[in-house]
Amino acid sequence: MKKLLLTGALGQIGTELTTALRKAYGENNVVASDIHPEIPDGPLRGGLYEVVDVVKPKQIADVVKKYQVTDIIHLAALLSAVGEAKPHLAWEVNMGGLFNVLEVARECGAALFTPSSIAAFGPSTPADQTPQDTIQRPTTMYGVTKVAGELLCDYYYLKYGVDTRGVRFPGLISYEALPGGGTTDYAVHIFYEALKHQSYTSYIDRGTYMDMMYMPDAIKATMQLLEADPQKLIHRNAFNVTAMSFDPEALAAEIRQHIPTFSLSYKVDPVRQNIANSWPNSLDDSVARAEWGFKPEYDLAAMTKDMLTQLKIKLKV
Q1: Model's pTM, two decimal places?
Q2: 4-170+213-240 adopts what CATH topology?
Q3: Is residue 203 flagged as an active site residue?
């Protein structure tokens, strides 16, 4: 039986992934961790929890040994917009933290899953149906750390035999937990504002297409790759995964199918717009489909309908 440790478990992905893993593997086999001293009220209350700062390797090692962890899911990272505001901290957390986790995995014989991102690509990458293997020259600190992280995970697999696995997530949309400073965050905030005020001011300009995925598909993809036959994994790390590509106008049009009075305006944030402009419009995920059977369930229409349904319950509107 797997014993799993999640770093950054209180973030947007970690909150829902921890819950799903506990259902799949049992509450006593999944340890959530984050830098916060206590778990806030919410779905993670009551389960195993440890304080782990990933820039402190002893804290990671102590928890792995305490619970005899077999698999580490490393989610702790600073996201794109925050990384541009704090590049030194982004390098320390994203690269230093990953190196520390890889070293603990090597020393303790644990497997490692860590996500990369669409941010690993840059303006010189083919923008449409971006291939699995292509030029990666990102222009953000977050993107730089993701490319370096992909290479470092490959190195630890080839050099030390650490079972490293990962996906390149697009923007993730969720009703459970708010995102934490990414460029694609608008695609979550827009739903809250649509229900509360029937309007939203987007910081991303019209015509800016980016790949997105609904969180249930992201959780399913992660768990599917964790259980995938290693003999079939040619790439192992940084699989392209996606479910839909849209711009703010397309998302707003879909929301109007449910809230006809919804209006969209723009106040473009130059920093996040420049980041978005450097990313692909759409990803080719055929390699993930071929090597471990990835297949998303939600398109834009299905995601929008479920987001609004779930948020009406959550917000009591």
Answers
A1: 0.93
A2: Rossmann fold (3.40.50)
A3: no
